[in-house]
Amino acid sequence: MTEKLKKLTTANGDNLLLLLILAIAVTLVSMKQASFFSFGTLESICYQLPEMGLLTMAMMVAMLSGGINLSIIASANLSGILMALIMTTYIPKGEDNAVIVLGAVAVGILVSTLAGFVNGVIISCFKIPAMLVTLGMQMLLNGACLTITKGATISGYPATFKFLGNGKLGFIPMPFVIFLATLILLIVLLKNTPFGPRVYLYGSNDTATGFSGVDEKALLIKTYTLSGFIVGLAAVVLTSRFNSAAAGYAESFLMQSILIAVLGGISPNGGKGKVSGMVLGVIIIQVVASGLNILRISSYLTTAVYGIILLAAVAFRSYKSSS
Hints:
This protein has 14 helices and four strands. By secondary structure, it is an all-alpha fold. Helix 3 runs parallel beside helix 8 and helix 5 runs antiparallel to helix 6. The radius of gyration is 20 Å and the shape is globular. The model has no long low-confidence stretch (mean pLDDT about 90).
């Protein structure tokens, strides 16, 4: 039994263990609701999964460098609010304008990317821990969101924008298309460009990275800028899906993104983790969330369940590192 557990805790067996957990979760949920395997359920998951998937990707990039990005939700909310303001201001209600929608989306993504860039500059140039910098950025952006909206919700978007979060490209939900495109981009960057090995090396040993001739400041700035860019894409999907924007939206997603990253094998200390593990983590949490919803578990208890999963994942990763 011990030998089997050790095999599952190797780098190659990590995804096998996640697949086993996924199989158990799916089986338990399908026992409660036989229609879980229906096309309708699969389509629903393909609409919901990209929201957390994109945010977890943004978190993963920061964590691979040994840091963290606590400003992802605040950044996504600010991007969503600015996109909403542009569209509701310049597009009359009931009308559509693809050019303005495209401009609003560009502004939203640019704002999140800029927030990530500023995070990277402060972390790298002033040697301040990423947790403190991104927490400060979170507070700054939350304040900006509240100042702009005064606590109100902005809604009523044109059809072109709503298509990005609720439409289909053929038979595939548009949010899932955006998620897959971003996933491919991240895989290419981590596996087929110098950025990937360098960010893994920096997360494992920042001192060795410096001696190897890598520009550490540039690397960290690129890392957090990429994280911010992915947050911008998540903001587009979230705002379109919710059909509204406001300060304080999706705050629980911050904890969930960290949970999924750790569950998927991303080391909180940096330098370890695979995109495939992250994807499996997203699917597992999505299945668990669907199961808890089917069982009509309250949102308060759901948060406690996520906390238990996070503690279990951290304990397991700790055991894996020491064995």
